[in-house]
Amino acid sequence: MTGSEAGTRVLSVREWRQMALGGVEIPMRFTVGSDSMRPLIRMKRDVVTLMPLDRPPRPGDVVLFSPNGGEPPYVLHRVLKVEGKTAQTMGDNCYKPDGWIPFDDIWGLALKVRKKHISIRPGGLVWGRLARAWFKVRLFMGRVRGLAGRILRAGNRARRA
Length: 161
Known about the structure:
By secondary structure, the chain is α+β, with helices and mostly antiparallel strands. It has helices at 13-21, 125-160, and strands at residues 28-31, 47-52, 62-65, 75-83, 86-90, 100-102, 106-114, 119-120.
């Protein structure tokens, strides 16, 4: 979140979380520092608006969580599956899912992403379907890369023998 707008206060993620736990739910805006959610969210370009999570996460939601029990780094990824009180997440630009995240470690829900000229809802119907299609392409490409690597290694071993 930036303090460039009048009346805006700069908070750390931890301070924002404490306010939310105390009943003060305010939106937080920030840019991400990695390309794990590309092409939906571009590093250091798109602005994400987040609200504290006030319901169980659902598949397709883009959530902020702390894989280190509240310590940085914080991760913004899409929910793939929900089982019991845990969710499995994965970045739209990743080949492998994250581990299972307890609901207590999921702090916020991305409500919108402000791109250069438009705002989108990252968990909405259109972007949710596009993200699922993108997941399938990324997983397929990961399998192709893995197969190609095994073929190349086998060929190298055969040449050396």
